[in-house]
């Protein structure tokens, strides 16, 4: 979890300040990286406008901002993938190498992206030394490569087998292998792009402890995250970008959360999310819309839950709890092995998305890039995908009708696009997620299943997406929010917690953060 981790890192070293020795060492060295007055344009659009960034040796420096703020463009310049139109980048006081000198860039900086660049079908050793394998008599020296890989992993205390297939590793282990690969080139400046997006609470604790250990060994991090609580847990400094411009850089300890959000959004106040605790109680006679009866799957067993019309129910738990699989079974994305799912009293066919749609289930899936969108198609085409059969004969919808749906959804959800013909790949992450929401709502579902609906989106997009939950609830729809984000769950009338495949506890609206987090982590706060 991330925003949900306020009490989680009590055993980790304090992240707000570096030790005195690290501070003195940092002051005696030039910045590990310094970007000065960087500007980058794409046509008439300024992706960066006079942006500066200074990262001190041995620190974790957060880079935050809404989607479209310019973070990705700045990272592409810091890693040598793009050349700035104006401004300069220096590493350790020296000018950045020419773009063509890729080895020189690798010796200075590496980025561990949210979507891993590890090749799953290769071994750990092959990934560590890809395109630079040791050669003996013209062929790869496999023995030397495995030996060098083992030595590298041992040096950085990364506990994985060098001959393990990379695809069999956990997400956490693959990230550490990527970090080791970067360090093996000589780089001591690592950019971490949303590193906790796919990790459990315990995995995040271990990653943060490892980051702190690496900092002590002279490694510097640029930490990119939409989860602001993580910034306060692991980083010493933060830089905020907004609308392609540098807004502020400051020590984390001197920038309270509300001021940080204000810098990101340009508006005062924190995240504006409706809290279900302030709502009127649901009428006792509200009809049952979703009835899940004792379903069992690969990572969950005997799960039952009910959601009435006009009710929002949260389903939370660690990544390995089975919560996502339950949500996907309800939406027809996967099939449960046993048990029954009923919508408005009628049983759903297991693993049948068209039948779920026809029965009144809409879904925002976990992975918008692979399950939620066709990135090469327009806003209108994506938004109308679930209702093509209703717009025209034999599933062929007239373009004018698709355009009408697209325009309606752009207006209803505040999608920032040039129009319904705007290709989805050209939208920011937050606006792409709004298009996924539009597709889910287009069929006017009775039951809306939202799986990690605000993952990887900025603060204002999060507000917009969660306001939809409140709106459809008022329309009398049933909503199931499957998420580990506290802000997502505050919109829920009650929250069910899953642990190791079972529903173990229920919280009414108004729950305390530490109590919910403890339940997710399997901790009994009241145990003597």
UniProtKB/TrEMBL annotation:
GO terms for molecular function: ATP binding. The keyword Repeat applies. SUPFAM superfamilies: P-loop containing nucleoside triphosphate hydrolases. InterPro entries: AAA+_ATPase (IPR003593), ABC_carbohydrate_import_ATPase (IPR050107), ABC_transporter-like_ATP-bd (IPR003439), ABC_transporter-like_CS (IPR017871), P-loop_NTPase (IPR027417). It comes from the Bacteria. Gene3D superfamilies: P-loop containing nucleotide triphosphate hydrolases. Keywords: ATP-binding, Cell inner membrane, Cell membrane, Membrane, Nucleotide-binding, Repeat, Sugar transport, Transport. CDD domains: ABC_Carb_Monos_I, ABC_Carb_Monos_II. Residues 1-10 have a biased composition (Basic and acidic residues). Residues 33-268, 271-525 form the ABC transporter domain. Residues 1-32 are annotated as: Disordered. This is Monosaccharide ABC transporter ATP-binding protein (CUT2 family). It comes from Paraburkholderia tropica.
């Amino acid at each position: 979890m991330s925003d949900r981790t306020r009490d989680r890192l009590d055993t980790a070293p304090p992240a707000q300040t570096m030790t005195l020795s690290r501070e003195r060492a940092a002051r005696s060295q030039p910045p590990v990286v310094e970007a000065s007055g960087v500007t980058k344009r794409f046509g008439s659009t300024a992706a960066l406008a006079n942006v500066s960034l200074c990262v001190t040796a041995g620190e974790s420096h957060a880079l935050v901002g809404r989607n479209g703020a310019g973070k990705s463009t700045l990272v592409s310049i810091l890693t040598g993938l793009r050349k700035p139109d104006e401004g300069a980048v220096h590493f350790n006081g020296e000018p950045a190498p020419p773009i063509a000198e890729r080895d020189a860039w690798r010796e200075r900086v590496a980025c561990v992206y949210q979507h891993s660049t590890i090749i799953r079908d290769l071994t750990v050793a092959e990934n560590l030394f890809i395109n630079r394998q040791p050669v003996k008599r013209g062929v790869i020296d496999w023995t030397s490569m495995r030996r060098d890989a083992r030595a590298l992993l041992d040096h950085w205390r990364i506990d994985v087998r060098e001959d393990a297939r990379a695809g069999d590793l956990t997400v956490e282990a693959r990230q550490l292998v990527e970090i080791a690969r970067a360090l093996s080139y000589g780089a001591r400046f690592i950019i971490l792009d949303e590193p906790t997006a796919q990790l459990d609470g315990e995995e995040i604790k271990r990653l943060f402890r490892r980051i702190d250990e690496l900092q002590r060994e002279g490694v510097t991090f640029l930490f990119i995250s939409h989860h602001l609580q993580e910034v306060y847990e692991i980083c010493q400094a933060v830089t905020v970008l907004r609308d392609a411009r540098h807004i502020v850089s400051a020590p984390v300890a001197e920038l309270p959360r509300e001021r940080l959000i204000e810098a990101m959004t340009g508006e005062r106040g924190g995240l504006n999310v409706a809290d279900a605790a302030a709502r009127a109680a649901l009428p006792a006679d509200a009809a049952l819309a979703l009835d899940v009866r004792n379903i069992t799957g690969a990572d969950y067993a005997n799960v039952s839950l009910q959601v009435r019309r006009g009710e929002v129910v949260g389903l939370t738990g660690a990544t390995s709890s089975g919560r996502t699989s339950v949500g996907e079974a309800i939406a027809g994305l996967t099939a449960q092995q046993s048990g029954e799912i009923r919508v408005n009293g009628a049983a759903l066919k297991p693993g049948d998305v068209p039948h779920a749609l026809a029965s009144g289930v809409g879904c925002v899936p976990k992975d918008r890039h692979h399950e939620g969108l066709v990135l090469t198609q327009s806003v209108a085409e994506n938004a109308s995908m679930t209702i093509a059969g209703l717009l025209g004969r034999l599933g062929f919808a007239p373009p004018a009708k698709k355009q009408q749906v697209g325009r309606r959804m752009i207006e209803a959800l505040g999608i920032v696009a040039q129009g319904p013909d705007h290709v989805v790949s050209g939208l920011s992450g937050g606006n792409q997620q709004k298009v996924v929401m539009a597709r889910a709502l287009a069929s006017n579902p009775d039951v809306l299943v939202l799986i990690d609906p605000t993952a990887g989106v900025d603060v204002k997009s999060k507000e917009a997406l969660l306001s939809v939950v409140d709106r459809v609830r008022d329309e009398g729809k049933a909503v199931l929010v499957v998420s580990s984000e506290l802000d997502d769950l505050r919109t829920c009338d009650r929250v069910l917690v899953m642990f190791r495949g079972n529903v173990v506890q229920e919280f009414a609206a108004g729950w305390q953060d530490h109590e919910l987090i403890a339940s997710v982590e399997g901790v009994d706060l009241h145990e003597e």
